Amino acid sequence: MAFIPHTPEDIAHMLEVIGVRSIDDLFDEIPADLRADVLDVPPPLSEMEIGRLMTMRAAIDGRPLNFIGAGAYEHHIPAPVWAIATRGEFYSAYTPYQAEASQGTLQLIYEYQSMMCALTGMEVSNASLYDGASALAEACLMAVRSNRHSTSRRILMPRTVNPTYAQVAQAIAGNQDISFVPVDFDRSLGRTLLEALQGFSGQDFTALVVQQPNFFGSLEEVDALNDWAHQNRIMVIAVVNPTSLALLKPPAVWGADGTSGADIVCGEGQALGVPLASGGPYFGFMATRMQFVRQMPGRIVGRTVDVDGRPGFSLTLQAREQHIRRSKATSNICTNQGLMVTAATIYMSLLGPRGLAAVAQASMQRTADLVAALTGIAGVKRAFTAPHFHEAVLLLDRPPAGILAALSRRGILGGLDLSERYPELGHAMLVCATETKLEADIESYAAALADVMSASRAAA
Amino acid sequence: MSEKVPGDLRYTKSHEWVRQVQGGASNGAIEIGITDHAQSALGDLVFVEVPEIGRALSAGEACAVVESVKAASDVYSPLAGKVVANNEALAGKPELLNEDPYGAGWLFRLEAGAAANFASLMSASAYETFLAEESK
Question: A147: nearest CA in chain B?
């Protein structure tokens, strides 16, 4: 089929029919001071030039031995994932506008949604969002639309939630009259302090965000957090790592009795077959219960039958979306990350539940090995005692910045310095190991750290 | 035009109808729905969201949503007042609104005090004139 853009004649004709002089006139409701007269972008580059530029920039990243997670995780991606995802039939980053013409794309998204529902235990998943942080922002907006018992537009955001996510939620939802109230964490366990939460009992809050595992890698007491929120008519927004769900309880069955778990589940999908790629593109996911589906943002693919009773796929519940509801759509800033979702669907298909559990188990074991190896070095200890998944916070006897810089010169990304985000923790850094880190990698990191620590001690 | 416009109701330009309930337990309450014209323009309804009981509405406030196979529209409260009842049957049977827009397809009721400005709304004949002009 032909997708031919409008000719200048078409445009002139359409403007005449609706009685508008120019396309610019259609945007006159945007205040003049918010409009960009000139876009400050560099001139175009040829294919050869852009190839060179990107190769040069990629080389700056180098090929370090990476022990940083903090929201984006280096997992092994089986070769077939991208071999299949880049086939011509799949290699488009977008849901086509005439969606039902592309039954294969829709079926793939449908399978993806089914897998995300199986992982989270929820009843319905959307076709994906930009990334984990914006998925949380969308989940907060969705909770405000969905929670009929709350008028406060206040959301409890524990400090154990990824601070970047909290910042993005603030940037997006904060401008819509929604406020975020921090909840403190237990300094020795590294998880949300239940007593801090209980101090809010009886007050009007719209939602409680629960990240599992939390930003420190620690496991939250999700059952207690979930039940406290529901007892106070507060919705529960779960932010989860999809790899961890192969081992951990699905958010749908959080809570003591397992029947009224999280209301909205969201998170970052990058760990499922998407490379780190210097920070993106990744994809966000979101799932909920049928009860709230009309407030969920993003596309949803459904399975149906045509007039002859043959099975087929179509976009469904579209009255939530902006091509129908305009400014009252559930979101005007989201899209489906088609290509990343294609890779994730192939990744999950190849691994299956047992394969994903093996990845999760191996990552957890490697992190345990890493923590054991590093805490054997003088001046390094664990910050928290709560059980953890594949990340942990370590405390050094001096500021991490200099140590991490020295490690980086040896080709090792040793961890994420937490001292700016969490000054109260002291000289803290967040480390991660996945199944991609072999015993030898952990040994070389430990040796380098011991060396750098004693060298800097000698220098001091 | 074959669309029904009952003479005993009041109307708005956004195609809501308003009835003052006579007699019974809800005597004097204000009942609100969407007109026959509105339901026929929307087509087969698949979902209706009504305002929760106890919510205080101001006149002109968007308070309900009607969704059909081809569109979704907000319903605006014609008068100010507190919601005292809503039509729960629509959750399971949104088609009631297509079949009987002035009866079984009612959306919600406001407390009797909301009636103060009832007479300022359009009469049936004014609404018919409005529809005729709108279709020109």
Answer: B52
> Which residues does residue A416 pair with via DSSP β-bridges, in sequence order?
A430
The pLDDT value recorded for residue A61 is 86
CA closest to B48 among chain A residues? A294
Do the bridges between strand A179-183 and strand A311-315 make them parallel or antiparallel, or are there none, so unpaired? unpaired
Q: Whats the size of chain B, residue-wise?
A: 136
State the Cα–Cα distance between residues A151 and A94, nearest whole angstrom: 37
Average pLDDT, chain A: 94
Handedness of CA B41, B44, B46, B47 (dihedral sign): positive
Can you count the helices (H) and strands (E) in chain A? 12, 15
Q: Tokens 């609100």 label which residue?
A: B32
- Angle between helix axes A163-173 and A132-146 (nearest 10 degrees) is 50
Asked whether the beta carbons of A211 and A254 are under 8 A apart, the reply is no
The count of CB pairs under 8 A between chains A and B is 12
Per-residue burial over A280-292, b if 16 or more Cβ lie within 10 Å, else e, is: eebbbbbbbbeeb
Strand partners, A226: none
Q: Give per-residue pLDDT as tens, B14-29.
A: 999 999 998 888 888 9
The CA distance from A419 to the nearest CA of chain B, in Å, is 47
For B91-104, the pLDDT digits (tens) are: 999 999 999 999 99
Range among A7-21, A412-426, B44-58 rated most confident: A412-426
Pairing, β A154-158 against β A179-183? parallel
- What pLDDT does A1 receive? 47
- Other C-beta atoms lying within 10 Å of the C-beta of residue A428: 22
The tokens describing A118, both together, are 């199986």
Question: Which three-class secondary structure state does DSSP give residue A312?
Answer: strand
- B47, B65, B67: which to substitute to probe chain A, counting the most A Cβ within 10 Å? B67
Q: Which residues of A touch B74 (CB under 8 A)?
A: 328
> Which tokens sit at A402?
């200099």
- Mean pLDDT along residues B23-46: 92
Give the residue-averaged pLDDT of A126-139. 97
Contacts of B52 in chain A (CB under 8 A): 148
Q: Would you give the distance in Å from CA A436 to the centre of its chain?
A: 21
CB-count burial class (<10 Å; 0-12, 13-18, 19+) for A279: exposed
Nearest Cα residue to A336 out of A163, A158, A134, A182 = A134
| Whole-number Å distance between alpha carbons of A72 and B54 | 46
Run of H or E residues at B46: strand B45-49
- At A36-60, the pLDDT tens digits run 888 889 999 999 999 999 999 989 9
B49 neighbourhood in chain A, CB within 8 Å? 294
Between chains, do A294 and B49 touch, taking CB under 8 Å as contact? Answer: yes
List pLDDT tens digits, range A235-257.
999 999 999 999 999 999 999 99
- Judge whether residue A93 has pLDDT over 70: no
pLDDT confidence of residue A32: 87
Q: pLDDT of A177-192, one tens digit each? A: 999 999 999 999 999 9
Query: Residue type for B105, please?
Result: G
